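Action item from last week, closing it out:
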Amino acid sequence: MNGASYQIKNHDNFNSAFAIKKVDGGKAVEQPNATILVVEDEDVLVDILEYNLHRQGYRVLTATDGLEACRVIGREKPDLILLDIMLPLLNGWEICRMIRLHSDRSIATTPIIILSALGTDEDRLKGYDLGANMYLPKPYNMREVLLQTNQLLEQRWIQEQLEGIQQLFNLQDQWQQALFHELRNQLTVISGMAEYICGNSNTKDKHVNQFNQQISNSSQYLSSLAENYLLVRQIEDGRELPSTEPFDLEVLLHELRDIFSQRMSNKTNQLQLRHEKIGPVHQHQIGLKIVLSSLIENALKYSDPETPLTLSVELHKNAQLIFRVKNKGVDIPLEEQDRIFEKFYRGKGVKGGGSGLGLYFSQTLAQAMGGKLILESSKNGHTCFALILPHS
């Protein structure tokens, strides 16, 4: 090689892409230090590249053969790779190909600059065809290597920020669509019943009572949905639940029974409580009420109208409260049981309205309260959800 072409020079006038301060909404944002992997089997070139990259503030990893490079890439996930082609054990062409075909997107999209003594047009085109972002033949100019490194890292950082913003917009759009769908359905019910009452002066009292009850139920549902949404969004934003105070669990359980008994007109379809004397519970009372209400609501929706629902509570010996909501109705298919807690997921055989948020809300709140929500069983027409919370 021509030593002069690789002379180490002072490049302090360059700024690493991951040290430049970006202006975002009037605020200076400093990007994190980038990690660069140098894959090169010539020790002199490794030393020169490592020295110059360190001076720009980069974290530098090195590999002297192809297999070692693959191990480092999988373990460290570098932000950019400087890749030689003629390497022991596994050449750079194969490394480049494997990176672009990797199942992990963060690895598959890693910027690659090929630094190779193979400098023909055919070699360069092959490099680009395999996914290299830049192909610099040896002897290369260190200034150009640093400039291209800086630009590619900056482009990747900007792309990641844009993707994050897009994901946020997509998520917000999904939330809004689901919520507006539910609000619209319930408001349609409320509006229809109200119009019927107003337009029929001869309506019998029992019908008026039924319609009034429906309006009340729908209004309560809208209020509950809004409360759930605000609380879960608070958790998703990384904020903790408000502080808790001890409360009487038995009072909360009977309150739930009273609320849902109004919706169960069939005498056999009642909410049965089974619990032992537990005493004061130190948990988030609103969060617990939301989760249990959601589970009862879900059970009521899919229950046989001729069978009761059961809400039971037991204090386990390892200081855990276990709430179980059981109903008899339709089994949850085995292939769907791993997905029922996903946001917006609704079973393939589910009919009627629904946002696919109820169980997601419940699981999120359960985890925020230090516990978990599981589908304990669903077979032979019997389904049981278990909410497990710490008891202090």
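Closing note: Residues 1-31 have pLDDT under 50 and may be disordered.
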